[in-house]
Design brief:
Protein name (chains A, B): Phenylacetate--CoA ligase family protein
Number of helices of chain A: 12
CATH class of the largest domain in chain A: Alpha Beta
GO molecular function (chains A, B): ligase activity
Structural class of chain A: alpha/beta
Number of strands of chain A: 21
Distance between the termini of chain A: 45 Å
Strand content of chain A: 25-35%
Oligomer: homodimer
Shape of chain A: globular
Helix content of chain A: 25-40%
Keywords (chains A, B): Ligase
Organism (chains A, B): Thermodesulfatator atlanticus
Radius of gyration of chain A: 22 Å
Strand order of the largest sheet of chain A: 4-3-5-6-7-8-9-14-13
CATH superfamily of the largest domain in chain A: ANL, N-terminal domain
InterPro entries (chains A, B): AMP-bd_C_sf, AMP-dep_Lig_C, AMP-dep_synth/lig_dom, ANL_N_sf
Largest sheet of chain A: 9 strands, mixed
Largest interface: A-B, 50 and 49 residues
């Protein structure tokens, strides 16, 4: 067994000792290198020396997505800009969030993602095809590099129609398909309606970006004749490889060598009772460029109790049961309502009444933004209104890497359908 | 001077000897490993032993994009599938084209792209931001890896609005921007109309995927206060790094250590007189997975005569002056009319009369497909017609990684504007 894998089987005492060392060095680094964290800690009267026990973590303040925005562009970097070898950007609540990677970070993430793949049964014999929307670009990079680390052949997500994707899958005898649960269901539906037989070579579906109900999972496994494995990640920290299923498939094992996890009440910020649903909070332990202390992921889940029959001693969480903040997950991409409002404001000069409508059209999630017609939207012509709508659609797609149709609707109709909600997910 | 660089200064005799050795080994490999090439050569009565001189190359038959399609998926691979570590797909004339890379190919391409960057003045101190459409995904990968090879920090093209791209450019003090000439002009126009000052940190624009007129180039250099360098590539072989400008900026130096270049009359296939415009034909010399013998690029250009004042002895070609085949370059992405017709047929069941209209809207190329209304397009409702058009738009964007609006127009109007043409580029 390689060291990489052994680590997942540490004893409770082993973990405690190692976590404490990693936490101490992390806190020490951020305190001395990130003025934001130093200030937060000073305000609470906490110094790195106070971290004598893992429970001291609870004294530290939370980091939120709003903090990431406020400290844009690089006030949260714990290394000089010259040590950053890659920078990714993705939409935050109101402005872009930036994530930097040192060479060491890229290596760590490659290893984590490779562990997720290996644990899922992927080997150097595999042909791994990645089908993900451009909005998941950070994950796409990580998955591609993780699969390369395993030694597999990789088919990255080039622009392709669904017909061509299936064709490529069959012609190149893809053995592992990496996609979201909703895209996998859409693929299956498409094949069934077109009378296309599932690719015989396929043996594993790696499902990332979203959870999936047991019935739908079973349907995928039976129809494709494959095993499915789920991966969980937080773009601000790391993509799949942060949490992954073992052969028992009882929740996500967390990569405890890279993160400490807590689950808190989203309202009070207090730790929830064991096994209760709350918001996942993570502290990175080995991240060089962008360490995060008690980062509120916004993801609702619960810890799974008791040891896992697989023997891994890492903590496990349930699937993600929802979002604590104003976000919605569409095809694995997190869309925050406040960013949608920012785009609406840029388009119309104000935020009109709206409804984000997520339809499931043949199992493919399609996004519509309903905007109530009002006199402020007034344009001299219908054509003008359409052009403005097109402008919004372009901005939305450029921002989230997802298409969204803007529909102008009567206010009464919007009110009737929305009934006070901002998001409807079919 | 590193070996990598020394190679660009070989003597004429040195090149001839080396080229012959590389050509012989390439022909030998494809003859024994690629049945398609063996058959072609057998038909012409040529054996690898006949390649005793560089001029023997002219006896070999051409390879076209149609051959790449016919030999899809992997009949042109010169290595077993297990040695392929990455597979990219992109649209060919009628069906997808697939390109495989061995680990060695990835290393070669990384070196070629790094040489393009170094020759253009990029160093490990640089922050390289890549702004390219998803349709250029193969090039994006190559450019990212080439910049990493140089040791620069890389900002890959995450989905982002133009405002955010400029913001990131300024906030992270981007020094090198990699984009297409048309996107650079669009950026400039956008900044000027919005009253945004160009990023002061920017010192080099690397322009790829298209050529640019001298006046527009000068405009970019003056407004941004930068140097511009152009790179040329052929997706079927390798992206920029195949041809790049030196400090003299007099045409593209070809990477003669990786390719042999000829220029032929697109009609007759005969070599053109020195300095005459014709179609560029390339033969790869160091490619392992997908070697190409006399591949007709479809790109019209001419050889530049005489030695380059920079001292490099590699052959030079002019900018690309047009396309010999039914393709058009839009934002650096080659769109083939026959593939557009394939999509139209899938959408409407037949190919209606159409016109591909490339507009320049504020310097950003926007694509419209005009379709003549006829009774065969009949749908029970206007809504139905729109839904079918949306279906086409989605398929187009998925295929080419470029948005395209479908407009239904009266046949008379289309005829009047098109006057027999299938493409209009403003």
């Amino acid at each position: 067994m390689e060291l990489e894998q052994k680590v997942e089987y540490l004893s409770e005492e082993g973990w405690r000792q190692w976590h404490l060392e990693l936490l101490q060095s992390t806190i020490n680094r951020v305190y001395h290198r990130v003025p934001f964290y130093r200030k937060l800690m000073d305000e609470q009267g906490i110094s790195p020396e106070d971290i004598t026990d893992l429970s001291a973590l609870k004294k530290l303040p939370f980091t939120t997505r709003e903090h990431l925005e406020e400290n844009y562009p690089y006030d949260l970097f714990a290394v000089p800009l010259k040590d950053i070898v890659r920078l990714h950007t993705f939409p935050g609540p109101r402005t872009p969030i930036v994530k930097g990677f040192t060479r060491r970070d890229l290596t760590s993430i490659r290893r984590l993602t490779a562990r997720f793949m290996r644990t899922s049964g992927v080997s150097s014999e595999d042909i791994v095809q990645i089908c993900l929307d451009p909005g998941m670009s950070v994950w796409i990079e990580e998955l591609k590099e993780g699969a390369e680390e395993v030694g597999a052949s990789v088919i990255p997500p080039d622009p392709q129609s669904v017909t061509n994707r299936i064709r490529i899958m069959k012609d190149f005898r893809t053995t592992v398909l990496v996609t979201t649960p909703s895209y996998a269901l859409y693929l299956l539906h498409f094949m069934q309606t077109q009378g296309i037989r599932p690719p015989e070579s396929l043996r594993i579906l790696l499902l990332v970006g979203e959870g999936i109900a047991s019935a739908e999972r079973l349907k995928l496994e039976q129809a494709f004749g494959v095993t499915t494995r789920l991966g969980y990640g937080v773009t601000e920290a790391v993509g799949p490889g942060m949490g992954y299923e073992c052969e028992e498939r009882k929740g996500y094992h967390l990569a405890a060598d890279y993160f400490l996890a807590e689950i808190v009440d989203p309202e009070t910020g207090q730790e929830v009772a064991p096994g209760t649903v709350g918001e996942l909070v993570i502290t990175t332990l080995a991240v060089k460029a962008n360490p995060l202390i008690r980062f509120r992921t916004g993801d609702l889940c619960r810890f799974l109790e008791g040891p896992c029959p697989c023997g891994r001693t890492t903590p496990r969480i349930s699937q993600i049961l929802g979002q604590a903040d104003g976000r919605v997950s569409i095809r694995g991409i997190k869309v925050s309502l406040s960013y949608v409002e920012t785009l609406l404001k840029e388009t119309y000069g104000h935020v009109p009444e709206y409804l984000l409508y997520v339809r499931r059209h043949n199992f493919l999630e399609e996004l519509e933004l309903w905007v109530a017609i009002n006199e402020k939207l007034f344009e001299p012509s219908i054509l003008g209104l359409h052009q403005v709508a097109e402008k919004f659609e372009r901005a939305f797609e450029e921002t989230f890497g997802l298409p969204c149709r803007l529909k102008l609707v009567e206010k009464d109709h919007l009110d009737q359908v929305a009934r006070g909600r901002k998001i409807i997910k079919e």
